[in-house]
Write a structure and sequence with these properties.
hpI Integrase, Chain A; single chain
Length: 296
């Protein structure tokens, strides 16, 4: 079964041109299911029935997996079995009669502008590493980048004379994203004062944001940076790097930005993904009404 999975992942990488993060998700989801099959003494893919898959999802539900995670698992497993059937590795696709898991749409956490400002003001810019962190936080809020987009940003992706950056998004899709004057100011400060101290020609490979060893920052390190300064700023909400992306989109729409323009900036292939922020905006408006209307 592992050999079939390797083959499937290779197809996703080289023919479907999916990102490493997406492929890793597929791999983990399908491996979890195959592990369940092994513990159920099912060693032949042809012997897997729809009832076995249903039992797997019931086990996930009892373990507390939410509908969003289950929907992703189902999508991964359906894709895998579709591939197996298309290549005649199995005779019957056991997922054909299974309904997709309905994914509940959770509204993303959003920071207020005042909370964003507190976090942006938290780094001590006299320290070189903290100056770098300040530039990272400013860019997150200014341009709404994903973590993977920020850590893979290179010097030749910066077009500050035009106030834009070039970003390589999901599925290796390139887009041009505006960047604000405050972010440009702090990134330039970092590039002049801090980055030369971190850079090591054998490791740095022209990445913008580097650690003290000269390598590009990891996803986990970005999480630590965001959590550190949120804590320093006294923000009690659960914060992660994507919170800046959510806040970026929500604040634009609250300010009257066009939905299509926000879609382009975020790099969403489908506008329905961007539309979730209109729901956030609606919740914000309702909250304002409740707090300030005399009969709210």
């Amino acid at each position: 079964m592992e050999e079939f999975l390797k083959e499937y992942l290779t197809i996703l990488r080289f023919e479907k041109n999916l990102s490493d993060n997406t492929i890793n998700s597929y791999q983990n989801d399908i491996k979890n299911f195959l592990s369940f099959c092994n513990t159920s003494n099912i060693t032949d893919l042809n012997n897997i029935k729809a009832s076995d898959i249903a039992k797997y999802f019931e086990k996930q539900r009892l373990q507390g997996k939410d509908s969003s995670t289950s929907a992703r698992y189902m999508s991964s497993i359906k894709g895998f079995f579709g591939y197996l059937q298309d290549n005649n590795y199995i005779e019957i696709n056991p997922t054909d009669k299974l309904l997709s898991v309905k994914k509940s749409r959770k509204l993303p956490a959003v920071l207020s502008f005042e909370e964003i400002e507190k976090i942006l003001d938290a780094p001590d810019t006299n320290d070189l590493a903290s100056l770098r962190d300040k530039a990272i936080l400013e860019l997150f809020y200014s341009s709404g980048l994903r973590v993977s987009e920020l850590i893979n940003l290179k010097i030749n992706d910066l077009f500050f004379n035009d106030e834009v950056i070039r970003v390589l998004g999901k599925g290796s899709k390139e887009r041009i994203v505006p960047v604000g004057t405050s972010a440009i100011k702090w990134i330039n400060e970092y590039l002049i004062k801090a980055r030369p101290s971190f850079e090591k020609k054998s490791k740095s490979h022209h990445y913008v944001f580097l650690n003290k060893r000269g390598s590009k920052l990891s996803r986990m390190w970005i999480w630590k940076i965001v959590n550190k300064y949120a804590e320093d700023a006294g923000i009690k909400k659960e914060i992660h790097p994507h919170t800046f992306r959510h806040s970026f989109a929500t604040h634009l729409l609250e300010g009257g930005a066009d939905l299509r323009a926000v879609q382009e900036m975020l790099g969403h292939a489908d506008i329905s993904t961007t539309q979730i922020y209109t729901h956030v905006n609606r919740e914000y408006i309702k909250q304002v009404h409740k707090e300030h209307h005399p009969r709210g």
